[in-house]
Q: What sequence folds into this?
């Protein structure tokens, strides 16, 4: 695993890609930070949450090449013909991407130091946001790794990853729309249910869809209210996607096609 | 060797026919097994992951495992009461009973409602008060007798209020859940209640303190002069055991005898003659007054002649002009009207250490030309030496700027020497020390508000040891001395320009180095 | 040792590999020969565990590639048709990465890499970017990659394809050198290459094994007789008749005849068992007749001929 990890991480910085990503991220986060600083109020949690909504762009860029590029260049042979488990390969690449995300995040640590120095608030809620950031990053990176393993074109992988993260980000909105849809469907002449039941049904639909949203689950962390279940949700879902990726890559060993 | 191979070859060709038959329909069973293993292992993991997460969020009796595994580690403890409240309740006699009654059914769905921060916090009062505090939820439509039990004289309109009532020894204080938060004033304009800080504990603890101790002082807010609302300031006073009352501005204005502090907060129109004399009488017997005005579109043409006449007795003059700060080191976000002001270095202990405070659309408040030397004035805050002023010209409806730059005072304190009952007069040329807008924006822990709290404490010798600060949902102000445009510009330059550019250059250097390897 | 039994690989209805069986013995160099699309690369990919087989088994040193993939893969160094190179790494970075992958102990690494670099002659290129290397050097880095970890078996898929003649010669030399220490499987569609370096040849065509043997045995087996070519000065008919009279000679055909210079060329077919006898007999017959022999050589069929006859059959 360490072999893959080292190579992937170094490869981000062998080309200008890693530096450009770092520069863009530091510009973006710096901009968000300065905008708050100018007004004399700095809430690092707000900055981190804004950065979380940029995952939809950042993660696909970081993960799109992980497997797609190996497939395109034929270098994936190395993984299949050497005595190394495919799961180690998946984990190595996953952790390399996570490390890059952590390196990007150093910018925010810099902002935290500036804030603390300026007498602003860096409290447990800030650290809660940091935890949320990394949990969400793990989940989305796992999705990105998965998207990269199902295609040999970086662009396709990026688009798949983008759409998947977008859907996750919009789950809350989707849940509202879905519940409205269910309500209008049930109140139509076809079913003509009592309003009580319609309300219950549409609320349940909304709750069921919103249940999958990691954003809803982790929203209290920024106030310093920690809870184990959302972390387990993010980590277990990340593991699920990594395992699925592993299985997809392993498929080559037995596939009849 | 060759003959051996020949036989091998023959054997191979013999078996080939058989194996071909076999493989036509059947593929390698091992591949099938691996496929089965692959799919089933994923399905099993999927089921385990989903089951695990569902178990966590499954609700039994309105609580889930998730709720047990939730830890409130916030420094402000949104859902747990502070040591200040705990130690105050501990200090009460053991037989004290404090009833907190919610006049509605216990809310079940707390998420995204004000009760999210109220219900768990009240439960925390119960668990940390060793039996002195009880919390009940009684719906008066089901049990109407609760109203007469709490309010036998029918003074309050409790029946339809949906409020909390804190009850100690026959005295009650009503608390509306909506009032337990400060709200973003900008959003409030559009009708949205966006909470910025949580003052649930402040509300309930001050209610408990005031019910058990009684108010020590009463502050009177003068109303009817287009003044700012004073909800948050009243909250703060209440937490210092100072009750809040109102007196209407009128031609037969009388200051009640129990008035310990008179507050004219952000008035927009001048006082009346009778007020002027009433206030002068009040101050001459050792009264205390806080006046705050600003220069804004609502009062540009108001020069407060009667107020100034009154204040001239205390050698203070409020100028009818708008301060312009030209020094970027004092500007907040490049704005010459929202600026920083230096605190008089003798008063830094009042601000909790901050050397600069915030100021917005201020009028200069300067010493007048009083000949009496028993009047002592102290400037409170000053602009930079590069400030200028502009005045309103009613003829053209324009502001005329005076280009001469200098240092201006934004607040004055006056008192008398040599009298047994000296008055205390605080005049602010800005409303950033008193207004609801400001407190809503920056919270109770902001240096400006800390300053106000400390001068009130200094005047009234009020005890605010049981003051529970607002729990910031978003009080994130940085120290005002860093919040100026100069620092912001330097930081912008470093974070948004130099750092990204440096990284790009590093990338180009590495790329060029490696490209030609 | 690699044992391949009844290997089948189907892509839909097409059988890319259709029941291939052969054994590679320790220490030999096996040529894997066939026209483009015969299933060479597919077979090699299956042996190395990169592709799955529809049925059949591959055992590497006794380890089944499907059941004990790690143990089997440990024994193999593989150079695929397209060398799996990261163009953004330098040669040394890349080989170090492969060392990491194959878990070569840190203390042996420097020594091993140095010997590999010098063996494939890329010492000067060690710090250069792989993307900037010429095709020949890239191929060598690919071979170096396969050598890392000192595997028992080297599987090289078309190692000389696309190289210039000089590079081809050098790579062949290298393979012969490697053959001293490793079992080598070498695929090619270039016959001379296989002829030049291999002990044994597996010829496959359309997914099936067409022939397995040593090259000399193959040629003999194919023809069952020896052909000789003879140029001489003298009367063509007389000579031909005399030669036909020699026991063992089955046929004599005129190839070139020039009556003006009376220089002729004959093709003599003889039973292969009697080969040596026939040649002495021919010599004495010619010298007795006083006809000077200008050229006398054996006409063993080339691999090309064998190959053509096998694959077109």
A:
């Amino acid at each position: 695993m360490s072999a893959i990890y080292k190579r992937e991480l170094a490869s981000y910085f062998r080309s200008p890609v890693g530096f450009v990503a770092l520069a863009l991220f530091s510009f973006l986060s710096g901009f968000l930070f300065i905008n708050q600083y100018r007004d004399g109020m700095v809430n690092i949690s707000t900055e981190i949450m804004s950065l979380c909504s940029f995952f939809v762009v950042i993660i696909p860029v970081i993960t799109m090449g992980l497997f797609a590029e190996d497939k395109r260049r034929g270098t994936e042979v190395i993984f299949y013909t050497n005595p190394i488990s495919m799961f180690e390969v998946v984990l190595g690449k996953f952790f390399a991407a996570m490390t890059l995300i952590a390196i990007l995040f150093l910018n925010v640590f810099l902002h935290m130091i500036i804030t603390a120095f300026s007498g602003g608030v860096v409290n447990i809620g800030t650290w809660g946001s940091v935890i949320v950031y990394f949990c969400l990053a793990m989940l989305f990176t796992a999705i990105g790794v998965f998207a990269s393993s199902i295609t040999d074109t970086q662009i396709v992988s990026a688009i798949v990853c983008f759409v998947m993260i977008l859907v996750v980000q919009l789950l809350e909105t989707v849940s509202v729309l879905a519940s409205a849809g269910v309500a209008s469907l049930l109140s139509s002449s076809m079913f003509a249910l009592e309003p009580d039941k319609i309300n219950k049904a549409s609320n349940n639909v909304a709750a069921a869809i919103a249940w999958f949203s990691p954003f809803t689950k982790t929203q209290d962390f920024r106030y310093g209210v920690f809870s184990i279940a959302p972390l387990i949700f993010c980590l277990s879902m990340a593991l699920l996607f990594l395992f699925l990726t592993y299985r997809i890559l392993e498929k080559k060993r037995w596939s009849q096609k | 060797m060759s003959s051996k191979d020949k036989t091998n070859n023959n054997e191979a060709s013999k078996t080939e026919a058989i194996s071909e038959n076999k493989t036509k329909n059947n593929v390698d069973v091992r591949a099938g097994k691996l496929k089965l293993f692959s799919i089933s292992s994923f399905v099993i993991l999927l089921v385990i992951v989903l089951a695990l997460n569902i178990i966590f969020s499954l609700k039994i009796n309105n609580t889930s495992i998730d709720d047990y595994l939730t830890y409130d580690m916030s420094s402000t403890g949104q859902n747990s009461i502070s040591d200040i409240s705990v130690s105050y309740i501990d200090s009460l006699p053991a037989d004290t009973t404090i009833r907190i009654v919610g006049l509605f059914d216990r809310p079940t769905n707390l998420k995204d409602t004000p009760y999210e921060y109220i219900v768990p916090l009240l439960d925390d009062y119960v668990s940390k008060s060793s039996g002195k505090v009880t919390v009940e939820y009684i719906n008066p439509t089901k049990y109407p007798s609760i109203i007469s039990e709490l309010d036998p004289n029918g003074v309050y309109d409790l029946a339809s209020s949906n409020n909390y009532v804190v009850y100690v020894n026959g005295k009650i204080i009503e608390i509306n859940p909506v009032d337990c938060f400060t709200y973003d004033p900008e959003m409030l304009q559009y009708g949205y209640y966006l909470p910025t800080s949580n003052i649930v504990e402040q509300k309930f603890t001050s209610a408990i303190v005031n019910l058990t101790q009684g108010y020590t002082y009463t502050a009177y807010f003068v109303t009817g002069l287009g003044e700012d609302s004073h909800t948050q300031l009243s909250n703060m006073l209440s937490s210092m055991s100072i009750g809040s009352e109102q007196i209407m501005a009128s031609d037969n204005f009388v200051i009640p005898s129990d008035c310990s502090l008179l507050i004219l907060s952000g008035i927009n129109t001048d006082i009346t003659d009778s007020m002027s004399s009433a206030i002068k009488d009040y101050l001459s017997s050792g009264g205390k007054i806080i006046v705050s005005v600003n220069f804004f579109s609502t009062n540009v043409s108001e020069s407060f002649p009667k107020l100034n006449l009154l204040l001239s007795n205390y050698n203070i003059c409020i100028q009818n002009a708008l301060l312009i700060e030209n020094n970027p080191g004092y500007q907040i976000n490049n704005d010459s009207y929202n600026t920083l002001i230096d605190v008089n270095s003798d008063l830094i202990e009042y601000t909790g250490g901050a050397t600069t405070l915030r100021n917005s659309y201020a009028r200069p408040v300067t010493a007048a030309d009083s000949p009496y030397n028993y009047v002592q004035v102290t400037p409170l805050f000053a602009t930079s030496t590069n400030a200028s002023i502009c005045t309103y010209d009613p003829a053209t409806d324009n502001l005329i700027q005076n280009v001469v730059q200098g240092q201006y005072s934004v607040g004055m304190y006056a008192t008398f020497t040599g009298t047994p009952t000296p008055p205390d007069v605080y005049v602010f040329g800005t409303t950033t020390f008193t207004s609801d807008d400001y407190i809503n924006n920056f919270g109770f822990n902001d240096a400006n508000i800390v300053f106000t709290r400390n001068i009130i404490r200094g005047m009234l010798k009020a005890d605010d040891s049981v003051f529970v600060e607002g729990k910031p949902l978003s009080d994130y102000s940085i120290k005002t001395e860093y919040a100026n445009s100069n620092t912001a510009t330097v930081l912008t330059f470093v974070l948004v320009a130099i750092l990204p550019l440096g990284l790009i250059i590093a990338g180009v250097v590495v790329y060029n180095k490696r490209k030609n390897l | 040792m690699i044992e391949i039994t009844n290997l089948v690989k189907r892509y839909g209805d097409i059988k890319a590999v259709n029941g291939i069986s052969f054994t590679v013995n320790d220490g030999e160099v096996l040529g894997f020969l066939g026209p483009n699309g015969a299933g060479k690369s597919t077979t090699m990919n299956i042996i190395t565990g990169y592709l799955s087989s529809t049925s059949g088994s591959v055992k590497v040193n006794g380890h089944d590639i499907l059941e004990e993939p790690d143990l089997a893969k440990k024994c193999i160094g593989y150079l695929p048709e397209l060398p799996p190179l990261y163009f953004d790494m330098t040669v040394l970075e890349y080989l170090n990465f492969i060392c990491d992958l194959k878990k070569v102990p840190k203390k042996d690494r420097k020594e091993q890499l140095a010997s590999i670099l010098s063996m494939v002659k890329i010492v000067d290129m060690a710090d250069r970017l792989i993307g900037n290397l010429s095709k020949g050097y890239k191929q060598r880095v690919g071979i170096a990659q396969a050598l890392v970890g000192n595997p028992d078996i080297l599987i090289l898929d078309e190692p000389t394809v696309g190289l210039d003649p000089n590079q081809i010669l050098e790579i062949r030399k290298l393979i012969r050198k490697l053959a001293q220490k490793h079992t080598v499987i070498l695929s090619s569609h270039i016959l001379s290459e296989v002829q030049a370096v291999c002990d044994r040849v597996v010829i496959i065509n359309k997914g099936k094994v067409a022939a397995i043997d040593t090259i000399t045995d193959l040629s003999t087996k194919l023809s069952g007789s020896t052909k000789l070519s003879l140029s001489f000065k003298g009367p063509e008919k007389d000579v031909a008749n005399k030669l036909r009279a020699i026991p063992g000679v089955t046929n004599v055909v005129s190839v070139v005849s020039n009556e003006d210079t009376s220089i002729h060329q004959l093709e003599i077919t003889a039973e292969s068992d009697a080969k040596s006898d026939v040649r002495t007999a021919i010599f004495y017959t010619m010298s007795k007749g006083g006809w000077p022999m200008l050229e006398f050589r054996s006409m063993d069929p080339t691999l090309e001929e064998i190959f053509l006859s096998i694959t077109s059959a």
